[in-house]
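Quarterly update from the structural biology core.
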Amino acid sequence: MKLTFYPWEISVEVSEGMTVLEAERCAGLKPDSPCGGHGSCGKCQVTVDGKQVLACQTPAADGMRIYAEKQAEAVILPEGRTLSGVTTLQRNIHTVVESPRYLMAIDIGTTTLACQLLDGNNGEAMISEGLLNPQCSYGGDVVARIQAASRGMQEEMMFSVREGLSALIQEVCTKAGLGPEQVDVVSVVGNTCMQQLFMGISTRNLTVPPFIPELKSTGLLEASGYLPPLKKAKMLVIPDIAGYLGADTIAGVIAAGIHKKQELTLLVDIGTNGEMVLGNREKMIACATAAGPALEGAKISCGMRGAKGAIDHVWTENGRITYSVLGGGKAVGICGSGLIDLLAVLKKEKLIDRRGKLALSGQRPEYSQYLKSEGRGPKVVLAPDVSVSQDDIRELQLAKGAIAAGIELMMKECAVQAEDIREVYLAGAFGSFISKESACEIGLLPQSLLDKIKVAGNTAITGAAMIACDRELFKLTEKLSSEISSLELAVLPEFSKSFSKNMYF
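Predicted structure, tokenized:
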């Protein structure tokens, strides 16, 4: 069967039984499908014969003319931000090869691939770039990716992420004016699922308890077998901690220096998945929460990633709700940082109650223009094409409840109070751009921690860069993999109660 996609006029031959979503992938397009093709997110809309349909629910037919202009957009960073957050500078280089010319660090995020190029003489970060993970069309979170792998898509997901990384490596090297063959060492981190998909390791171990990761020791491999442009580089494989706590968490611990600190420190890495570590050099405990889908725009009616056109921050000004738009121009959706700001505004202005219910009656008159009740219920209208419904608020409450419960139960496990925590690092591609004031206002983080919060950027890529520079840190990752305790929230009897409580404002 032959299908043609517009406006690119790309034709592709596909097999009988394929969906339009699968055909888009075959055509080399980048369809957005956070739910993994189950028809629940509504993000993969295309136009066929003048009718809007979901690509994942529409069988491909010979001769179809499909308008698929809405494709997944790369996450962009607000002006002045970098992927790393801090410049990695190791004045004494002691890496796994002698006299390296250039080093590279890679973070395989569920949503974003990040790559940083380092000077081999002093470890200085030269260029940092990011790219949307091509696997996003197979699902927005790790659970959806694992499900896709179990349906026979593991190999194509492996190739898609390797191709994406290869393109990113080439882009970074071109901007630096050098060839990829001049890179001598590359360190790679990611969560457990992303690591195994990249390495070509089956993810079946992540489908049944106790979810033991396959990578529990360091590895030194020829990079060319996984990342073809790096013809001469050694690839450092960093081990994982548990089924949903990966090498990116170990890199975050190293970047934040928790393994060396006497002070009790909390690392909160909020991305598509929420990973948290609490502890110091004596003891560390970590947990993961499935918080990201809502914060990355999935299951939110006008939600989107932090791409061009997304409302990224919301505040009040002279009785008006005001916002900023990533990349400028017209608002076409709202991303996670904007949602958190909006909820903080609604709470402070008493436009929602403690249960998260929008207060349409008795509202302050200056805000009446933003609160509407039509169709499926009450909503907050921010722009002509952007609104946030009561259901959207509930989705965000689920995410905040999960993260806050994780922090609470880690503190309980360590027998400490929030006041005992001396430093908080807010990290991750998403966590770096949320307002810490808004996060504390809605209870995502304890209010008492506000003055202790430091925005740390992408600690995964920073830690990976530090590991690339120092073979002793590389060795340390294996020790940390076994010493960091994993707290499985879902099996704790008190999790349900803590989660429910933390959904309230």
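The mean pLDDT is 91.
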